[in-house]
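Dear colleague,

Thank you for sharing your sequence with our group. We've completed the structure prediction you requested, and as agreed, I am returning the results in plain text so they can be pasted directly into your records. Please verify that the sequence below matches your submission; if there's any discrepancy, let me know and we will rerun it promptly.
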Amino acid sequence: MTVGELLRQWRRRRGLSQLALAGAAGVSARHLSFVETGRSRPSRAMLLRLGEHLDVPLRDRNALLLAAGLAPAYPEHRLDEPPMAAVADAVRRILAAYEPFPALVVDRHWELVDANAAVDALTAGCAAHLLEPPCNVLRLCLHPDGLAPRILTLGSWRAHLLARLRHQLAATGDPVLQELLDELQCYPAPPAEVLTAAPVVPIRLRAPGGRELAFVSTTTLFGTPGDVTVAELAIEAFLPADDATAAALGADRRQPEPTRRPALPPALRRPRSTA
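Please find the predicted structure tokens below.
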């Protein structure tokens, strides 16, 4: 695929006209049109600017540059390579900080990169073939031989995970994610529960010992990534949603009373509603 075809594909995926993209990126709409039709060759600076305004993933920004005959702008290293030492150390520290609560690291295809020891308690009893590398976390969670039979809120949790995957697919157009979505949608599952208004979608599951656990999940991404691998890492953590879960995992959610914070300056205070 030519660089013009790739650009057009990303522009349409973002729902932008040539005029809108050109205006946002500060380039000529005529020149952008010529680039998309192959009548003009874009500069490196132009492609990087367009990639930024289109929110193109770093991996695909490199693909744009390569399609134009230019060198990639973003390196890609494995976590065990020397340039990634600081990142790898940060990941280990974050995973350790979440213990005794489960936390794991996934890549752009939801394949397991690393996890803390607390995850083992959740995956105990799952089929061995689902745990073998490369272990896909969504497959492990929703497969009938994985966690699915133990998830008490499987309908709503499955709907939540599939919605996240669809959103990721819409943003990237990644064919691997499309294959994963097609596979996951074929797994048997109950209908999604009708949820009352709640700040988060919880997951409730039965631990191997029979105890019920309740979690809320959080996702952590690295800010301002300059490496393809770093940009594609996500840390998924599961925090106790009630005291019983915290106690079962060996932690007490009851914390000492927080110290009173100093009052915010007037300019930073949120105005009160007059309604």
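Summary note from our side: The mean pLDDT is 91.

Kind regards,
the structure core
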